[in-house]
Amino acid sequence: MGDKAARRQKIGEWLRRYLPCEIAGTVGELGGAALAYAITGSLAAAAVAATIGASGGYYAAAYLNAVRWSHRALAHRPPLARLVLANLLALRSVAVEFGPAELIDSVIVRPIAFYAGPLLFGNVAAGWIFAKLVSDVGFYACAIVSYERFAGLLVQRRPRPANQEGESDEPTTTVPAV
């Protein structure tokens, strides 16, 4: 039972961390692909637009979360130093956690999947759904390895330990010493 509960807790942690980014990335990805395809009629242009849209939406959400979490944790710093450090920590966090995954995903997996998916399925929408799923599996396999391996370098939102009454609903941020 302990392993099952720990696994469920870890999956919940990943969902809380990645789901807002995934929603923003999916909107950019499918919106960009649809717009490019509607304008050009080209699967290649749609594949490029999907890749750019996914990255833009995803990393905007990831970066803003990291800035917000690190900014809160640096409340003891003067305002300008707090702002600069929060942005630097967010930049480092996003680069460490997502850099390798993004390189593999954006250069190889996603463009090929978004180009080949519609050809394999004979239907643009079905092919893009397939491409999205294939691309995300590869991306998250890499991103989660980075998240788990380099957690000490990442800005993270963690629950505070329970107080004397056993309450712990307030979040706290873990930011490496600067």
Characterize this entry briefly.
The chain has 178 residues and is mainly alpha-helical.
Instruction: Specify the biggest β-sheet.
Output: 2 strands, antiparallel
Helix content: over 70%
Shape: globular
> Uncertain spans, ≥5 residues at pLDDT below 50?
168-172
| Element-by-element helix/strand order | HHHHEE
The number of helical runs is 4
Total number of strands: 2
> What's the arrangement of strands in the largest beta sheet?
1-2
Q: Can you give the mean pLDDT?
A: 88
Structural class: mainly alpha
Query: Strand fraction band?
Result: under 5%
Gyration radius from CA atoms, angstroms: 19 Å
Distance from first to last alpha carbon: 39 Å
Structural commentary:
This protein is mostly helical and 178 residues long. The protein is 78% helix and 4% strand. It contains four helices and two strands, in the order H-H-H-H-E-E. The relative contact order is 0.12.
Write the layout of secondary structure elements.
Elements: H1 2-40, H2 43-73, H3 79-121, H4 124-149, E1 156-159, E2 171-174
Antiparallel strand pairs: 1-2
Helix pairs in contact: 1-2, 2-3, 3-4
